[in-house]
Amino acid sequence: MNDSSKASGPGLIRKAANFGKAVVKHVADGGKHVTDEVYLARLSVCANCPSLDPQKLRCKERTCGCRLKTKARWRSESCPLQKWPAV
Ligand code: SF4
């Protein structure tokens, strides 16, 4: 990975693969969401994280690339850097 891809996050194919894995986990978890309190706590952590792409509201970590409005809502998801509070 070169510096420009680090700056913008994973490429389209990796993002699609990561999202596919996240969907499988979400379905296996019964499509459960976290509470509004947990959701807002997660987004608050992301808002202060250097891995946030603030324009696209995506996580730039290589194992993620997800839209955080979706990722933070799903109970089955976790922060790739273990920064989110425990559910
Ligand atoms: S999911 Fe984790 S690594 Fe990604 S932006 Fe949020 S706090 Fe940062």
How are the SSEs ordered, and which strands pair?
Blueprint: H1 3-8, H2 12-28, H3 36-47, E1 52-53, E2 58-59, H4 68-71
Antiparallel strand pairs: 1-2
Bound molecules: iron/sulfur cluster.
Model description:
The protein has one domain (3-71). Helices cover 45% and strands 5% of the residues. A hairpin with a 4-residue loop joins β1 (52-53) and β2 (58-59). With 87 residues, it is mostly helical.
Helix content: 40-55%
Number of domains: 1
* Ions and ligands: iron/sulfur cluster
Work out the helix count: 4
Quick structural overview:
The protein has 87 residues and is mainly alpha-helical.
Give a quick set of tags describing it:
single chain, 87 residues, mainly alpha, two-stranded antiparallel sheet, 4 helices, 45% helix, disordered N terminus, binds iron/sulfur cluster
